[in-house]
């Protein structure tokens, strides 16, 4: 890899397709198994981090499990009393008492099961919410390069899936398994008490069962790998298609979108069926094992009761305890299988949670306050993929309060300048200075506090227009918001809406046009009152007249700030003090519109293509 450039992985549709095919090098095939050595620390961490906050609920659940286990043992034991007293000794007077005890035992079991379901449900929901929040709060702080090769929907679906898996592992181990073990202890006590020999026979068959179950477990583990990825892939393809619905419709690509979705769904379905089929083998195995044990009992019990005077009550109590033990034993035999499936997701979850947030995000770094807005790029190189340069050895200065336009053909590196300035990516080589301070040493929070960005892809939160503008400066008064709205020409369209600036926007509210959204974004940036303001094709969705009005206002409002403006419209560019011309990652020229129009071939060619009036001199919006 060229040492000049930091690696950055592009979003590639082929990558998604490759993952769908499960091809070599795909995320799926790269996933590792959760070995026992890895599983233990994962499980330990899950429990240590998540259970203590719910210990009171957990204790309540444990008491319920103990009560339910005791009641289950008692309900097997009462069989002996019932058969021997009522049917062998024919004691009719005992019927009422024994029936009352049976009803009492069932009542205890029912109440314990109800309370346990309620408590584990509460614990599960609390853990799922907490794990989702922890993952999301980490993901939004990732370096943007982490988002380059994954669709956002994939991140979100993974977060949801991982959190559910984490809660399942915790509850399977600390609640369901504990409850099953307690029930088995209670039933085994009854069994040993009735006949130690018969108990031994049943225990002897268990290793055979466990070996077979182990083999199936390994197969399921292999199949479960990548199930999460496939689910996320389906969501990602579906979301992508809906997001791009206008393009899909205009190119009549509905069939292609449906086919690609169906392909992903089909792959997921096949994987699900395979897992299901393999899991299903567990049941016949356990049934056959159980049948074998019961057959042996009958032979042994007949011999005992015919020759050695064992009572039918003892035999019934034993069989009942054994049958009751079947379900919890089956669940315990499957614990490893169930957990293995979930541990793959838990590992992904901790991978997300443990991924370092962008360097020096949050604490640390030099402070940056009261700045003039001087910017200096010194020999800056950067590559997104580690090989092809997006910027190569770029150096330039921006004076405080200068209005700088950045132009270039598509892919020339204009947005990369903005990404570097905001430290959304770090330069592979060279340095960037803000007011003379190396930006790499400045606290990331301070860099972003001092720069306001209006980007080409406007993002508005669901809420009112006013709330969205206020995001620029959370403590701003209504008057300040309204003044920013006036400057950015938001008021001109908001006054036509029933609720003005208090109109709801976003999925549940009014849908604004692309240009209206851009004006809200400009108002938000103006309100921020940062010493440096960047417009990255901020007016691309506005018509010529509106664009000029908004940019006049934006430049005027920013007269005391440094402005960097990436634009394709000559009217905006002419208004700048100086223009930088980029081509294929290189800074090829800089000067005023008049100078560049005379001497810079690339500048001329850019604007000759779209704007014939290139040689007309431009009006300066500010001196
Ligand atoms: N996320 C990314 N992953 C990989 N390569 C990227 C990424 N973003 C940009 N590039 C590449 O870096 C180079 C510079 O891109 P940049 O977005 O800075 O160009 P631009 O001049 O802003 O283009 P446009 O005017 O089309 O927005 C291009 O060759 C582009 O393909």
Automatic annotation (TrEMBL):
A Pfam family assignment = ABC_tran
State the SUPFAM superfamilies in the record: ABC transporter transmembrane region, P-loop containing nucleoside triphosphate hydrolases
Keyword S-adenosyl-L-methionine present in the record's keywords: the answer is: no
Molecular function via GO: ABC-type oligopeptide transporter activity; ATP binding; ATP hydrolysis activity
The keyword Kinase is assigned to this record: no
Q: Keywords of this protein's UniProt record, alphabetized? A: ATP-binding, Cell membrane, Membrane, Nucleotide-binding, Sugar transport, Transmembrane, Transmembrane helix, Transport
Where in the cell?
A: Cell membrane
Q: How does it sit in the membrane?
A: Multi-pass membrane protein
CDD domains reported for this sequence: ABC_6TM_MsbA_like (cd18552)
Q: Which InterPro entries match?
A: AAA+_ATPase, ABC1_TM_dom, ABC1_TM_sf, ABC_transporter-like_ATP-bd, ABC_transporter-like_CS, P-loop_NTPase, Type_1_exporter
Task: List residues traversing the bilayer.
Answer: 56-78, 93-115, 198-216, 285-303
- Domain ABC transmembrane type-1, residue spans: 59-341
Top-level taxonomic group: Bacteria
Domain ABC transporter, chain residue ranges per copy? 375-609
| GO CC annotations, alphabetized | plasma membrane
Q: Which family does it belong to?
A: Belongs to the ABC transporter superfamily.
Q: What is this protein called?
A: ABC transporter ATP-binding protein
Source organism per UniProt:
Mesorhizobium atlanticum
């Amino acid at each position: 890899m060229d040492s000049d450039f930091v690696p950055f992985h592009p979003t590639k549709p082929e990558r998604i397709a490759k993952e769908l095919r499960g091809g070599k090098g795909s995320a799926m095939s790269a996933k590792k198994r959760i070995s026992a050595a890895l599983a233990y620390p994962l499980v330990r961490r899950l429990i240590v981090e998540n259970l203590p906050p719910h210990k009171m609920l957990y204790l309540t659940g444990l008491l319920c499990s103990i009560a339910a286990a005791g009641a289950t043992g008692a309900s097997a034991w009462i069989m002996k009393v019932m058969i021997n007293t009522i049917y062998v000794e024919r004691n009719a007077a005992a019927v009422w008492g024994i029936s009352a005890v049976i009803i009492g035992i069932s009542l205890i079991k029912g109440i314990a099961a109800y309370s346990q379901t309620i408590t584990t449900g509460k614990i599960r929901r609390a853990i799922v919410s907490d794990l989702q929040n922890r993952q999301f709060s980490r993901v939004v702080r990732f370096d943007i390069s982490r988002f380059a090769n994954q669709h956002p929907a994939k991140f979100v679906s993974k977060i949801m899936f991982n959190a559910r898996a984490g809660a399942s592992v915790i509850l399977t181990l600390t609640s369901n398994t504990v409850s099953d073990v307690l029930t088995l202890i209670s039933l085994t006590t009854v069994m040993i008490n009735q006949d130690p020999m018969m108990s031994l026979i049943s225990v002897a068959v268990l290793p055979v069962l466990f070996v077979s179950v182990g083999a199936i477990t390994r197969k399921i583990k292999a199949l479960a790998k990548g199930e999460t990825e496939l689910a996320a892939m389906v969501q990602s393809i579906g979301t992508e298609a809906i997001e791009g619905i206008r393009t899909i419709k205009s190119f009549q690509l509905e069939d292609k979108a449906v086919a690609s979705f169906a392909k992903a769904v089909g792959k997921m379905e096949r994987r699900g069926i395979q897992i299901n089929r393999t899991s299903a083998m567990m049941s016949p195995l356990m049934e056959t094992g159980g049948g074998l044990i019961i057959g042996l009992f009958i032979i042994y019990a007949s011999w005992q009761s015919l020759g050695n005077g064992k009572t039918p009550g003892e035999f019934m109590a034993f069989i009942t305890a054994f049958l009751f033990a079947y379900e919890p034993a089956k669940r315990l035999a499957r614990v490893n299988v169930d957990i293995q499936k979930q541990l793959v997701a838990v590992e992904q979850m901790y991978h997300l949670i443990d991924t370092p947030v962008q360097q020096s995000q949050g604490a640390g770094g030099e402070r940056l306050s009261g700045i003039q807005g001087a910017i200096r790029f010194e020999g800056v190189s950067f590559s997104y993929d580690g090989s092809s340069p997006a910027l190569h050895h770029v150096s330039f200065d921006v004076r405080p309060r200068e209005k700088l336009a950045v132009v270039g053909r598509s892919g020339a590196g204009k947005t990369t300048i903005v990404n570097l300035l905001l430290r959304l990516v770090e330069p592979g080589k060279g340095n960037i200075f803000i007011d003379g301070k190396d930006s790499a040493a400045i606290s990331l929070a301070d860099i972003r506090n001092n720069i306001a960005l209006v980007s080409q892809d406007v993002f508005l939160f669901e809420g009112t227009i006013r709330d969205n503008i206020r995001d620029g400066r959370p403590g701003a008064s209504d008057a300040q918001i309204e003044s920013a709205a006036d400057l950015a020409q938001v008021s001109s369209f908001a006054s036509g809406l029933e609720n003005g600036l208090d109109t709801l926007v976003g999925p549940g509210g009014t849908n604004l046009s692309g240009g209206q959204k851009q004006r809200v974004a400009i108002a938000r940036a103006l309100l921020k009152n940062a010493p440096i303001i960047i417009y990255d094709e901020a007016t691309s969705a506005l018509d010529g007249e509106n664009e000029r009005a908004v940019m006049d206002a934006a430049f005027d409002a920013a007269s005391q700030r440094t402005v960097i403006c990436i634009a394709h419209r000559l009217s905006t560019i002419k208004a700048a003090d100086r223009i930088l011309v980029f081509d294929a990652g290189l800074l090829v020229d800089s000067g005023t519109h008049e100078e560049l129009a005379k001497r810079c071939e690339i500048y001329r060619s850019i604007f000759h293509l779209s704007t014939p009036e290139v040689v007309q001199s431009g009006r300066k919006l500010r001196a």
